[in-house]
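#onboarding

Welcome to the new folks! Below is a worked example of what a typical request in this channel looks like: someone posts a single protein sequence, and someone else replies with the predicted structure as tokens. Don't worry about understanding the tokens yet, we'll cover that in week two.

Example request:
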Amino acid sequence: MNNVMKAYIYNGAGGPEVISEEQREIPAAADGEVLIKVAAFGLNRADVQQRKGVYPPPPGASDIPGLEVAGTIQALGRGVSGWKVGDRVAALLAGGGYAQYVNVASELLFPVPEDLSLVQAAALPEVSSTVVSNLFIEGQLAAGHSVLIHGGAGGIGSMAIQLAKAVGAKVIVTASSQEKLDYCLSLGADAGINYKEQDVLAQIKELTDGRGVDLILDVVGAKYLELNVKALAVDGRMVVIGLQGGAKAELNMGLLLAKRIRIIGTTLRARPLAQKAQIVAETNERIWPMVKDRKLAVNVHKTFEFAQLQQAHEYFDSGVHTGKIIVEV
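Example response:
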């Protein structure tokens, strides 16, 4: 094959206009890695944050954005076992996904079942790994617990609803419109709160008989800190995975102590390989049986062609989507 591929980078920080096409050398599969011919990749909020200049790639990661892909294995590096050239896979990346080819450690691969398209598969690695690590590894969610998921209609929220219900949790979500709440309810959420029209804290108290929720999955950050602390039950946990509502806020430490609350901040992208491999292994264990048994709704809201990447970012920025936006390569 020709040793040159098409890739996209961010030529500065800003809006979708900073996305720039480049010709790059096709990477080689180093020891323990595979080379994937990319068929599709998912857009994530982390991609947008990187584009805006507030979420740089970790040291050693590619300057090409993109955190999840699906495609076929083109080459195996030394020491790779359990995979072969031609296998259909999805992969979790620290970067490099906005390209025709990408190399990745074999521990970060997901097998793609025959009846799942590569477009659908591209919607799974980042969001499912994020949800599994934060709901279960960090948040210790289990049957009988209650969980509040902010932004329930997005890619992470959509996955979190389904996985939380699969273990027998009570799921409450927030969203900005009745249409988005209806979508969340269709995925199995027990209750939805329109944060633009309703008093979120009052609704949570009513829905939990005044007890509060055991776990909060929060993408908002500072804007919701006070609300979240008040909404948690005694011994509750809050896992913060995003800062859409700012990074700095005052915290009532007295309430924190009185309720024995744990606030956990996590990111996935910059974790060491061993930690990511553990997360991917547990994600494979939890997600893939549901995929194979068609018990997991993989909602690809809209697809774009590779040459339409700028338009895909514009659409993402509009905030109208529910589920995932996928780019076909």
